[in-house]
């Protein structure tokens, strides 16, 4: 089994206190990471954003389905919870995650909000990447 705590410590030392709670799961860590990412969006802190989204995406691609599901339900499902940040959040979302997380959004949101997110995500270039 992959040691998600080791990877998290390397990428997000800001959340060391959460990692030190051995009884807390990856879900708790990802929920805290989500809050850290929202703060970083508000502050325009691209370094923290890069590391936060990198960790969530790393979890999404692990062979253990537990980590993939944790990333989906404890991080990606909530990226638009602060609706005022939607324009800042959208470019950070990995394209390969969208089909799975969209099903969760469909369950939570009305058609108007879902349409707005679809519009935001259409053709967005992730930060730091050149247009293809």
TrEMBL record:
A Pfam family found in this protein is DUF7674
Please spell out the taxonomic lineage of the organism that makes this protein.
Answer: Bacteria, Bacillati, Actinomycetota, Actinomycetes, Pseudonocardiales
> Where does the DUF7674 domain lie?
9-98
The protein's superkingdom reads Bacteria
Q: What is this protein called?
A: DUF7674 domain-containing protein
């Amino acid at each position: 089994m992959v040691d998600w705590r080791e990877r998290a410590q390397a990428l997000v030392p800001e959340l060391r206190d959460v990692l030190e709670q051995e009884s807390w799961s990856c879900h708790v860590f990802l929920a805290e990471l989500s809050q850290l990412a929202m703060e970083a969006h508000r502050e325009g802190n691209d370094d923290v954003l890069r590391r936060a989204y990198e960790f969530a995406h790393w979890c999404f691609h692990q062979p253990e389905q537990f980590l993939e599901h944790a990333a989906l339900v404890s991080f990606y499902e909530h990226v638009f919870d602060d609706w005022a940040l939607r324009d800042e959040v959208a470019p950070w979302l990995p394209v390969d995650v969208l089909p799975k997380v969209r099903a969760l959004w469909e369950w939570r949101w009305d058609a108007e909000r879902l349409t707005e997110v679809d519009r935001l995500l259409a053709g967005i270039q992730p930060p730091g990447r050149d247009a293809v």
